[in-house]
Amino acid sequence: MAASFVTLFQWRLNSMLLHENEILLGVKDQIKSLISQLDAAGSFTGDVGMILGRESGHGSWASELRGMLRQAEDFVDDFVIRAYGQTEKDRKDSIAEFGKELQNFNSRISEILNRRPRVEAPLMLEEIQRFVRSNISSSEDKETDLVTCMLNYINLPYDLKLSLLFCRVFLGRYGESIDGLVRVLVATGLVQEKPGELMEEKAQENIDKLISLGMIEELEVVWDHFKVPSPYFELSLGVMKAEDFFMSTANSDIMVPPTARHVSIYVADNTIPNTNSFLHSLFVSEASSDCLRNVLHNSKLLRVLDLRDTELESLPDEVGKLVHLRYLRVWYSNITKLPESISNLRNLQTLDISWSGHEFELSNGVLNLAQLRHLKMYQLLNDGEFRVPQGISRLGNLQTLEGIYAGSGIAKELGVMTQLRSLEVRCVSDDHADELYFSVMKLSMLRKLSLTVEMGRRIESSLYENSFFPCLESFSPPPLLQTLKLVGRLIEMPLWLGSMENLTKLYMCYSHLSENPTTILQFLPNLKYLRMDKAYKGRRMDKEFFRGGGFPKLEHLYISSENLVEWTKIEEAALPCLKQLSIYYCMKLMLLPEGLQHLTTLQILDMWDVHEDLIRRLSPNGGLENYKIKHIPLVKYLGHMISSVQGRWTPQ
Question: Using omega within 30 degrees of 0 as the cis cutoff, is the peptide bond preceding 229 cis?
Answer without folding.
Answer: no
